[in-house]
C-alpha cells in the first residue's frame, strides 16, 4: 500500500460563511439580530422583512471598523441570507448569527 504525504501545496481558499435571517414569530421587526465574532457583537433591530433586515445587518457589519469585522466582506447573496467572505484567503474566522 502506498504511503500518502501531505505537502501543503494547495492554494489557500477564502472562507465563506452564510447565515439566514429568520424571525421568532415570523415578524423580523419584533427581533434583534446579532453577529458575534471573537466576542465583538454587531446588532440591528429587525425591520419589515427578512430581506430588509439582512441588508441592514450587512450594512452595519461593513460599517464596523473593528478589525474582526473589517477583515470580512459582508454581502446579501439572496433574500434573507447574510454572507461573510474572508478578505485574505486562508485566514479563518468564526461568526455566529443570533436573534433575540
Report on the architecture of this protein:
With 100 residues, this protein is an alpha+beta fold. It is 18% helix and 32% strand. The protein has two helices and six strands; from the N terminus they run E-E-E-H-H-E-E-E. It has helices spanning 50-63, 67-70; strands at residues 16-20, 32-37, 40-45, 72-75, 81-86, 95-99. Strands 1-5-4 form a three-stranded antiparallel sheet. Strands 3-2-6 form a three-stranded antiparallel sheet, with helices on one face. The protein is elongated and about 60 Å long. The model has no long low-confidence stretch (mean pLDDT 91).
What is the mean pLDDT?
Answer: 91
Instruction: Determine Rg (CA atoms, Å).
Output: 17 Å
Number of helical elements? 2
Estimate what percentage of residues fall within beta strands.
25-35%
The biggest beta sheet is recorded as: 3 strands, antiparallel
Question: Given the C-alpha coordinates, what overall shape results?
Answer: elongated
| Secondary structure category | alpha+beta
What is the N-to-C order of secondary-structure elements (H for helix, E for strand)?
Answer: EEEHHEEE
Short description:
The chain has 100 residues and is α+β, with helices and mostly antiparallel strands.
Amino acid at each position: 500500500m502506498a504511503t500518502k504525504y501531505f505537502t501543503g501545496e494547495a492554494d489557500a481558499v477564502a472562507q465563506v460563511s452564510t447565515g439566514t435571517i429568520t424571525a421568532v414569530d415570523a415578524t423580523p421587526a419584533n427581533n434583534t439580530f446579532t453577529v458575534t465574532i471573537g466576542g465583538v457583537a454587531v446588532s440591528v433591530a429587525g425591520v419589515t422583512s427578512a430581506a430588509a433586515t439582512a441588508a441592514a445587518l450587512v450594512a452595519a457589519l461593513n460599517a464596523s471598523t473593528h478589525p474582526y469585522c473589517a477583515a470580512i466582506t459582508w454581502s446579501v447573496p439572496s433574500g434573507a441570507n447574510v454572507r461573510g467572505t474572508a478578505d485574505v484567503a486562508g485566514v479563518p474566522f468564526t461568526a455566529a448569527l443570533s436573534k433575540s
